[in-house]
Amino acid sequence: MRTVAIFRRELRLHDNPLLQDAERGEFIPVFFLDEYNQQEHGDNLRALFFHALRQLQSNLRAVGGRLYILPLAEQERFFDIVRPDEVRLCEDVEPHSRQRDRQLIDLLNSKGIRVRLLRDSLLSPVPDTTYPTFTQFYKKHFVEHVRPLPTIPAPKAINTPSFDLPVVAIPEPESEAARRWFATEEEVQRRWQAFVRDGLAQYEQRRNLPSQEGTSRMSPYVRCGMISLRQMLRDAWGVSEQFVKELAWRDFYSHILYHHPETVNMELRPEWRGFPWRHDETQFERWAQGRTGIPLVDAGMRQLLCEGWIHNRTRMVVANYLTKHLLIDWRWGERWLYLHLTDADLAMNVGNWQWAAGCGADALPYYRIFNPVLQAQKFDEHGDYIRQYVPELRAATPEQLSQIGQLHHLFPNYPAPLVTPEEGRRRFLEVAQQFFEDQR
Ligand SMILES: Cc1cc2nc3c(=O)[nH]c(=O)nc-3n(C[C@H](O)[C@H](O)[C@H](O)COP(=O)(O)OP(=O)(O)OC[C@H]3O[C@@H](n4cnc5c(N)ncnc54)[C@H](O)[C@@H]3O)c2cc1C
After folding, report:
1. What are 103-128's pLDDT values in tens digits?
2. Are residues 219 and 351 in the same domain?
3. Which end of the chain is more exposed for a tag (fewer CB within 10 A), N or C?
4. Do 108 and 202 lie in a common domain?
5. pLDDT tens, position by position, 18-61
6. Residue 414 pLDDT
7. Is residue 287 a contact partner of residue 319, using CB atoms and an 8 Å limit?
């Protein structure tokens, strides 16, 4: 029996369905380098991803296997040379990937090669239709279909035959931010185990505090498949339902992208299409560089620039400020985060952006506008997170951090607010009310 396993975003040995029974017969792991992804993804994600691919390559080598890395254009020639009995791959919900997989499956069918489609980046099967709210999805679908599954052990010995194939080197994009996340598969396991031991039980209480390590910080590794979602679910099951629900949000947004690929650049809710978003490049640039004059927003955007990651609470605040207070198109914000996050994931990013803007699934109603100053008082009470990422405000007291109109006088290197929370709120409500009235 000769099996080919096509790796895409499942870059690990542990608990990997692609590697089930890999010790039996001849087993050929392969990665096809897709130019489309090279152009679409930012350097932070690319750098971490190719780091993970190098880890996988050396871990496979350590058990006697060999990972072939080939340009996508060589795919057909590869199958003609290798002539496998079976090809395994994992399902992917992104529009480009689905089109690529359809073509691949047609090709394999035409050559009489058996295809096994596995699930790894989702925990539950894609339902026939999407659910209108997360709660309905969670109760009626996720809880019904998802149970902890046994671990798939990492293979101890793999037999990969040698072929003369036009292999290519793994690209090495430069990224300081991504380097912070570089880790071996074992190191990712250690970090996850430390979170299970010290963080999971208090997850619900601490997950909203950006100055603390209250969340798992696993998202970049989830994105590259350096850790298994099934393992995360297994460990959280019965310990933190809140954590299990966060994993369920992944499936919720993935299923939406699967059924509504148009949401990549169009609002899911039709009544929002044509909304008069502003396209103010100067203000957008100030937001992107963390120079809005709103401390929590600036801290989040600067965390992104230096770490390629932002805490979830702050992601919600920066997205809400851009779309509501600045009234700038959510698509602009979505693209900026996508190009800078090491955990950039199309389904999660688009779904969360539309949620924050109000135009997506189970989204905030349009009149729910976060006040970023009150958010900071509540979730960064002492200002530790802000002071960490905004050096101009390092000497500011928590009281001073709330004096939005005064901060730039007290700390002359810090900018005046682009829009105060009160002005932003008033303007957004006027524009939105008018727009929805005109629609009636
Ligand atoms: C505007 C915006 C953009 C976002 N873009 C992305 C993105 O591109 N990629 C991405 O993985 N997440 C995205 N998220 C979701 C979330 O912020 C991150 O998954 C989370 O902050 C990752 O940190 P963590 O691993 O410590 O999460 P934890 O709190 O430890 O959660 C565990 C896991 O659950 C999943 N998860 C948690 N929250 C969410 C959520 N709201 N939606 C979907 N999955 C979730 C992640 O896989 C995460 O690793 C975005 C959120 C917002 C508000």
Report:
1. 999 999 999 999 999 999 999 999 99
2. no
3. C
4. no
5. 999 999 999 999 999 999 888 999 999 999 999 999 999 999 99
6. 98
7. no
What is the average pLDDT across 210-215? 96
* Residues 281 and 411 grouped into a single domain: yes
Nearest CA to ligand 1 atom 46: 219
pLDDT surpassing 80 at residue 405: yes
Do 133 and 237 lie in a common domain? yes
Residue 116 located in a structural domain: yes
Which residues, including other chains, have CB under 8 Å from residue 293's CB and lie 6 or more apart? Answer: 404, 407, 408, 414, 415, 416, 417, 418
What does the chain come to in residues? 440
Structure tokens at 149: 């599954």
**Within-domain flag for 173:** no
Q: What's the pLDDT at 380?
A: 98
Read off the pLDDT of residues 285-296 as tens digits, 9 standing for 90 and up: 999 999 999 999
CB-ligand 1 contact for 337 (6 Å cutoff): yes
Q: Nearest residue CA, atom 5 of ligand 1?
A: 349
Mean pLDDT over the full length of the chain: 97
CATH of the domain at 39: 3.40.50.620
Atom number of ligand 1 nearest to Cα 207: 29
Tell me how many degrees the CA angle 54-57-59 measures, rounded to the nearest 5: 110
Domain of 268, CATH number, reads 1.10.579.10
**Best probe residue, ligand 1, of 348, 350, 353, 375 (max atoms within 8 Å of C-beta):** 348
Final residue of a structural domain among 259, 282, 315: 259
Ligand 1 touching residue 352 (CB < 6 A): yes
Instruction: Determine phi and psi for 309, rounding to 5 degrees.
Output: -160, 150
In a domain, 169, yes or no: no
In the structure, what pLDDT confidence band is assigned to residue 364 with cuts at 50, 70 and 90?
A: confident
Domain of 125 in residue numbering reads as 121-151+185-259
Q: Is 392 helix (H, G, I), strand (E, B) or coil?
A: helix
Evaluate: CB of 228 within 6 angstroms of ligand 1.
no
217 lines ligand 1 (CB under 6 A): yes
Neighbours of 174 (CB within 10 A): 9
Here the CATH number for the domain that contains residue 226 is 1.25.40.80
